[in-house]
Amino acid sequence: MAQHNYYVENELGRLRKLVIHSPDGGIGKIIPGTFADNLYDDIVHLNKMQKEYNHYVKLLLYFLDKEKAHYINQYQQTADEEKKSWCYIPGKDEYFNSDKVLDTQQLLAEIIKDEKVKLRLISAICSYEESSYAIQQVLENINDAALLAKIFITGILPAEAMGTQEDQYIFPPIPNFIFTRDIGIMVKDHILLSRMATVARRRESLLTKFLSLYYFFKDEPQKIMEIIEESDFFLYEEEERKHRIITIEGGDVMMIHPKHFVIGCSIRTSSSAVNEMVHTLFSKPELGIEKISVVKIPKNRAQMHIDTIFTQVKRNVWVLYGRFSERILRAEHISRHSYVNKLSHNPRQLEMEQVEILQFQKPTNEQYIKTKDYSIHKKLPGIESLLRQISVEDFGAKPEDVKIIYSGGNLFPHDEREQWTDSCNVVALKEGVVIGYDRNDKTADAFKEAGFNVLTTKEAFEQFENGVDPETVENTLILLPSAELSRARGGSHCMSMPLLRDKL
Ligand SMILES: NC(=[NH2+])NCCC[C@H](N)C(=O)O
After folding, report:
1. Which ipTM score applies to this complex?
2. From the CA of 303, how far away is ligand 1's center (Å)?
3. Within a 10 A sphere around the Cβ of 303, how many other Cβ atoms?
4. Is the Cβ atom of 489 under 6 angstroms away from ligand 1?
5. Residue 294 Rama label (left phi>0; alpha psi -120 to 50; beta)
6. Residue ranges covered by each domain of the chain
7. d(Cα 474, Cα 462) in Å, to the nearest integer?
8. Which EC class heads this enzyme's classification (predicted)?
9. Is pLDDT above 80 for 13?
10. What is d(CA 367, CA 40) in angstroms, rounded to the nearest whole number?
């Protein structure tokens, strides 16, 4: 069988290729008055954030492209102090430039070397951002692809490159582009494009569409799946449109098992979108998806996608935010909040009631021809039941071996505090080796209790530099420095869009 360039059918197989995006200058332009518009909750120190992110990049390189990690080490030994970080900056000659760890900025620069694509992308962005014709012309006259790619992302015409007195701001920043998980989802050898819920992220969707069309799937555009509203959508009244709108963000979509797909219905991924995804995925027999679980969560900022509530660590191990779990219903847990829980308006209880899990089984052809719908479904009692079912039924684990590690050890208030800083949002480099944030102490303790080693990136790098082969690392949580990174409200799962993973 031909080797796939891009293929993902689980969340755990050895990670071989992914898309990332290093924090860019746009993040440094957010002011408190625009927090809500930009989906940020704080002012982030950009320089420190980039340093933290570089740990992430280097760790990825050790696992995916070791030679490039060695290149970084060598480069930094000889580089002048102010140039030390240049090997991490896309567009610089010193950039590590890997074909396994791919930055969106580097890929954009690649596709716009084709003049036709460049002009198309400029006019698409300029019309979306309602720029003047003059700005469009300025962009058309820029021949440095790396510079232009950077401008598309940051929205800044840099003074030194443009020969002007000051930087000129031409588009708003897209400071959430570092969360590449959300921009699109590999479904085996297809890609499902996101349709971002908020204005702050729509340019990301546009850029991703171009990357899919002109880079990843330029020879097989039929593998790009796009789900949009019905053609008469705009004829409906506003209220009605709210029900029919299609929004999809990758943090809500998990290709968990070759036959089983999990979709979150959240503040970002609309119920119409979920509905359409179920139809689209079941109607493509080549995808081989037989079961789709829909996890409906409350529409909260704190848990904007399902991957802020749970992610998979091993076939039989998960990390989960306990407040949305079935356990919260257990008497001993509730007794901790005995006073408030007796009140019917207790917000925790309300939230719990909003968690709903429906599971759809692909109907046989005859069933479908008869009913034309996928309503043959069952309801699961809660998230733990779903995770256990996946471990046992899909992956063949023994029920007694399934382990759920809880955010903050499931102890209030650590559970909530650490969920906010993405304790449940880990990405697997391979089965059992996941990346977390160093500030989530109690969650790290819970991993230890579950039998995992816990290492900081610094410790991991020391080991790798002393000859330990990353290939031999097993059952380990590797912690990134995260004081600034976590303020953007996404963890390593959000910061990765896997393109190629091994089958399990
Ligand atoms: N997959 C995720 N959980 N992504 C997190 C995205 C965080 C980002 N600030 C936003 O609100 O959009």
Report:
1. 0.98
2. 9
3. 22
4. yes
5. beta
6. 20-53+85-169
7. 17
8. hydrolase
9. yes
10. 47
